[in-house]
Amino acid sequence: MAEHTSSSITIDAAPSEVMAVIADFDRYPEWTGEVKEAEVLAKDAQGRAEQVRLVLDAGAIKDDHTLAYTWTGANVVSWSLVKSQMLRALDGSYSLTPVAGGASTEVTYQLTVDVKIPMLGMIKRKAEKVIIDRALAGLKKRVESGAQA
User: Fold this and answer.
1) What is the pLDDT of residue 56?
2) pLDDT at 1
3) Which of 21, 90, 108, 96 is nearest to 53 (CA)?
């Protein structure tokens, strides 16, 4: 089984505000540096994305892939790879935990990436860490700027 990489950040906003930004896939190109296009392909009964196509340009890795999303309660979303040109696996999750009486949110991002091309485990984990850290920093900036409205 592949090892996962995870990291956490605290965002000065309620979990519902953070999840609103995470769930707004159409706006990902505005705040995630690597996502150039995002298209929701299917939604669940609550109107949340079930399948999303993402065009990614992360320097060494350029890919057009589709992810399947699973929503667990109001504070957890996870995803897994449906199809990709470059990736064998892309599994991840955001878990939101209220802190400071719900005024802030601890966001934990877990990610497992497996590429079709050979790559040393150490390099792969470093790439996962960079992806996670950039995503968390971008999410924090986006939520705290109030730009999600």
Assistant:
1) 85
2) 42
3) 90
Largest Cα–Cα distance of the chain, in whole Å? 46
Residue 83, C-beta contacts closer than 8 angstroms, at least 6 positions apart = 65, 66
Specify the range with the lowest mean pLDDT, choosing from 24-38, 63-77, 117-131.
Answer: 117-131
Mean pLDDT of the chain: 87
Residue 78, SS3 per DSSP: strand
Helix (H) or strand (E) holding 21: helix 15-23
Tokens 């990291």 found at: 7
pLDDT surpasses 70 at 91: yes
Residue owning tokens 């929701």? 40
111 contacts 13 by C-beta, under 8 angstroms: no
